[in-house]
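Show me any protein, fold above all:
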Amino acid sequence: MRDIALLLILLILVYVSLPWPFLGLLALTIVGYLYPQSYAAGFMQGFPAYELLLGTLILSILIAWWRGRLELAPPTRDWRLFVLAALWLYFVFTTTQSMEPGMAWPRLGEISKILPGLLLTLLLVDTREKLFYLLVAISLSIALLAVKGGYWAVMSGFSDRVYGPPDSHFHDNNHFAVLVVMNIPLLILWLRQTRHRPLRYVLMAGIALSVAAALSSWSRGALLTLSAMGLALLLDSRRKLLALSLLASTVVLAFGALPEKWFERMETIPAHQAEGSAQARLDAWRHGVRYAVEHPLTGAGFEGWRFVNLNAQNYIDWHSAYVEMMAEHGLVAFGLWLALLLGTILSLTRLAGAARTTPEQSWAADYASMLRAALIAYGVGAVFLGLAYWDILYHLLVVAVIISAVGQRDSVRSVSDLAAHGSPRWTK
C-alpha cells in the first residue's frame, strides 16, 4: 500500500510539473532531499524518482519554450560559477589519473548528477518570490525528516540515535545531524519571512525538534556544528540579549533531558589521545595530507583512500571533507573548493552588511545571513566528515549566486524607478 501511495504521489508531481517548470523544480528539490523511495517496502525500492522528475522538468522546459512562454533568469557572470566549472573539469582530469579508476569513474558520474539540477535552478529562479519558495522546499523537506527524528528522540528520552533516510547519502547519524543543523538557519529565515501566526508556531516547533534530532545523533561533530551555527546566529541577531536568553534556555532544557551516557561520549571530544576512533581519523588525515603534498596536481582520485590508506594502521576513509578534497584531487582542486566555500561566506557577509543600509534590500540581508550560518555549519561539520561532494553544499552555493543576482537586479530597478519618477517628496 505504501508503494502504491508513493507511486501516485510521484505521478501527481509529474502531472503538475509538466505545465509549470518552476513547480517541477520544487518537486525535484523535495524528492532530492526527502528521498521518499527509501521508505518503500516493495516494488518502489530503488525507484529512480529523482531521475524521473529531472526528465519531466527538462521536458516541461522544452514544452514551455515551444509554446513561447518560458521565462528564464538573465545570465550572470558570478565568479563562483566559473570556479565551480573549473573544479568539475579538474575532477575529470584527476579521474583520468586516478589510482582506483574502476571506482573513480562511477563516482564521478554519481556526483555529476547534481549539475543539471544546479543549472536548471540558475535558469528558473529569477525573482525573490521564486527564491523564497525554493528555500522553503529545501527547508521543508529536511525539516520533515528532522521532526520525525526529533519526535522519536524526545519520546525515547534521547536514548537512541537518529538516522536519515535509508540508502541516502545522509543516512549515517553523523551526516544526518550536520544536515539538520544546516537546515535550522533556513527554517529561521522562513520564520522571519512569514507573519502567519499558526505557521510561525509550527516553524518554532520544527526548529526545536531539529535541535533535538541533532543532539540525539550522539555525534560529537554535530555538537560542535550546532555550537558554531548557534554562535553565527547569535552574532547576526538584532536583539542579542533576547537571542542569548532563548539560546541559554534551549541548552538548559535540552541538556536536562539528555542521558548520562550522552555526556560521557561528548566528554571524549578534547581527549582525542585516548579515543580510538579519533586516533584512527588522525592517522587517515596524516596519510591523506602527506599524499596530497607528494601529488599536488592529481591526488589519488575519487575513492583514493582505498589506495592511500591501504597500508595504514587503520584502513578507513578520510572522515574529513578537507582532507578528502586535498588527498583525492590535489592542492589545486582543494584551493578551488576552499575558495568556493570561504569566498561565499565572505561574500554573504559583505552582502548582509551592505543590504542592511538600504530598506529595499533588507530582505537580502536576512537571506545572506541565514545562508552564511548554514555554510558555517557545513564548514565545521566537514572537518570531521567526508562531505566534500554533498549536493546541499553546491545547492546553497548556487542559491548564494541567485541572492546576489536578484539583489543586484532589484537595486538597478530601484535606481531606474527613482530616475523615472524623481526624488520622493517628504511631507509633514
In short: The chain has two domains: 1-71, 77-420. The CA atoms of residues 166 and 325 lie 25 Å apart. The first helix runs from residue 2 to 17.
